[in-house]
Design brief:
Blueprint lengths: L1 H19 L10 H21 L13 H7 L29 E5 L15 H5 L5 E5 L3 E5 L3 E2 L4 E4 L5 E6 L2 E4 L2 E6 L2 E6 L4 E6 L2 E5 L7 E4 L2 E6 L2 E3 L6 E4 L3 E6 L2 E3 L1 E3 L1 E3 L12 E5 L2 E2 L3 E3 L3 E3 L2 E5 L2 E2 L7 E4 L3 E5 L2 E3 L10 E3 L4 H4 L4 E4 L2 E3 L14 H5 L10 H4 L16 E2 L4 E2 L18 H6 L9 H21 L1 H12 L1
Parallel strand pairs: 1-2, 2-5, 3-6, 4-7, 5-8, 6-9, 7-12, 8-13, 9-14, 12-15, 13-16, 14-17, 15-19, 16-20, 17-21, 18-22, 19-23, 20-24, 21-25, 23-26, 24-27, 25-28, 26-29, 27-30, 28-31
Antiparallel strand pairs: 10-11, 32-33
Amino acid sequence: MLSVICILLVSFFPLIIVSLNLTLPHQHPYPEAVVQDVQRKVNESFSRRQVLDATINTQCQTGNPIDDCWRCDPNWSKNRQRLADCAIGFGQGAMGGKNGKYYVVSDSSDTDVVNPKPGTLRHAVIQDEPLWIIFSGDMYIILKHELIVNSYKTIDGRGAKVHITGNGCITLQYISNVIIHNIHIYNCRPSGNTDIRSTPTHVGRRGRSDGDGISIFNSRNIWIDHCALSHCTDGLIDAIMGSTGITISNSYFTHHDEVMLLGHDDGYLPDSGMQVTIAFNHFGVGLVQRMPRCRRGYIHVVNNDFTEWQMYAIGGSANPTINSQGNRYTAPVDANAKEVTKRVDTDEGEWSDWNWRTEGDVMVNGAFFVPSGEGMSNQYAKASSMEPQSGAIIDQLTLNAGVFGAPRDNSISISYGGGTTTGATGSGSGGPTANGENDFFGMMFGSATPQKLSTTTTILMSLLIILVLYITNNYGGQLSLQLLLLLLL
């Protein structure tokens, strides 16, 4: 079988490179244009703020283009779906449940994951039609197992205090167009090895999950805004396996070790097409590392407030592009942890050509960013048609980061009967494997015993996936099926 794969890869590899260029079907072809569009929208919001009297409406004209887009309307609650027009960055195409019906969650229970009760959040998110999901009042939703969300859904917590916690938490897998807004998400634990309904017509066996707050797996057009995340077993937000078109904005992260992972594995080539915007977030107390940790892809980190880390703020491997603009980085007291950046397990001779750049960032308490590649030159800044807003205005841009009206230090902890989860260092079998990677095959196929894959195997499988995609796109599904049958023989 391995020899067949090698022969096919040798035959098709030049065509794959030319035709797909290791891209994902839905990634933006000009990421720099998206970056400049974010800058333009921030500049426009600040110009409007300077012209108008901001004291007329303290919730309006903040200079934050997302918030000013909908909060300036005093009757926003009667036109909730306008929020879908307010995203910026790579996830701005996320429609959520726009133009769909409103679904009011009136029951906070989660007792049956195969036949969820109407009126519950689980029943709402699995529906096939676009839905704008709102809540009848304040709710603490303790999940029995991971909440598998279907495409074209908005989970809109505005006007209520909505807390999601428990087993598995939120999973976005093989779907698109989801908006998650104004939700507390915390104390998420591994769970699984059970049947869970993901659509009205499909129930599938789920392996053990990792305990992420939000897990994004091979999904696109995702927007996470004004959420508060803390105290999960694995990542607060992880995006892997060919996910792209993501914006994470206005959120508040606290009390966690490995905050955010973007990219599954150094050898997983499709993640080269991952594009993520991280904007106007507050990275607060009790954080250690990965804000984010990137593998491949293009990551735009713009106008965030990093007030604490213990190891590093932004890290990466496998040559991601990291564009840091207008952030404020406040270094810890530890003299050995002043550097913002970390090239993970990579020699300088290899990462010196990686495009990591800093522009308009404010460094506090001895913080320093080590640029590389194009980031070492001033040519990029000179070529840009507009300047990003400086980190000096970060207080205004992140004024309302997190859930509206919630305290900034989210040290929430909840008891599960067998003890209290207060940290992010759980050792459940659904967490990382011994070599520090996630068991994504276990998640997909229900294997309780993850198998360690070699780098060579991972690369071959990645190329095989690209090969099948190429044949599907150019020659149709029948030939792809024949190829798969051949490989399985």
